[in-house]
Amino acid sequence: MLDATTQAQRPANAPADHPRIRMGKVGVLLANLGTPDDYSYWPMRRYLNEFLSDQRVIDYPAWKWQPLLQLIILTKRPFSSGAAYKSIWNHDKGESPLMTITKDQTAKMTEALKEKFGDQVLVDFCMRYGNPSTKSKVRQMVEAGCDRILFFPLYPHYAGATSATANDQFFRALMEETWQPASRTVPAYFDHPTYIEALAQSVERAYGGFRTRPDILVCSYHGMPERYLQQGDPYHCQCIKTTRLLRERLGWNESEITSTFQSRFGPEEWLKPYTVDHVAELAKEGKKNVAVIAPAFSADCIETLEEINEEIRESFEEAGGEEFAYIPCLNDDAAHIQALSTVVEENLKGWLSPL
Hints:
Helix content is 46%, strand content 16%. By secondary structure, the protein is an alpha/beta fold.
């Protein structure tokens, strides 16, 4: 988390009445999608309203979409989404699992980057939707003396509805700064060797603990409308490449692993095959033992803990499947932290060098 111990000083040769300022630090701001503050109706409604009003997420014209969203969707969906969040909520800490995991990732990234760069780097996190907001964390970093900020969306794969909207919000925050820090954004790392290695290790660890080897590993990625792919979004291609690189690292043949897409929303055709349907088809084809992993998520959240481990599992079992195993996201696993810190180090070149 942020450490504002940098002493405020007057710039060299400045008059005595010049305000003291902090400078010289580099901020690393990790960003994830976001989470409601609570699973009750109004916190859920506020969160869903911010999320579903983002034109990067739902790109329909506002005059058409907003009446539907405000009058119909947001009167009902907070109840169903709230129930889903309640089923996975970290009741001990009063927060969602995504919040808990992101805090743990930030703490471990702070340790890892301190080993590399000493006290030159300040690490914190923000959420695109909900709290803590991107704007508030940029302000805190500037106040703490960060004159350079590396903004790191924790999405291995680039998509307009994830990486781009997170970057958009970062740039909006910079617009409100009188003295803007120099800034960089971290690109997608879907094919980075350390990320693929961390994924492979998680699969090998999980498979080592299974009584029976799964018939197939399903790599379930978050979906998007097919239209976005046709418009030039690279997400689909990056997902397919991740699966291929993972298969090659594991030394498997193509029949042992597949790519699917989940979380379909609305009436449009989305990227296929749909995970919820495909696992049922696998069961009917005689593949009674499957494992599912979610490579596009850096932390377990509602889409993995509830959708995969409950809804998609149920679809598989109702179709005759017998053994369904969900392999958790990389979360704060040591290999994942090493991968993320390596990506940060590469993107800090020219600003900082390791000690």
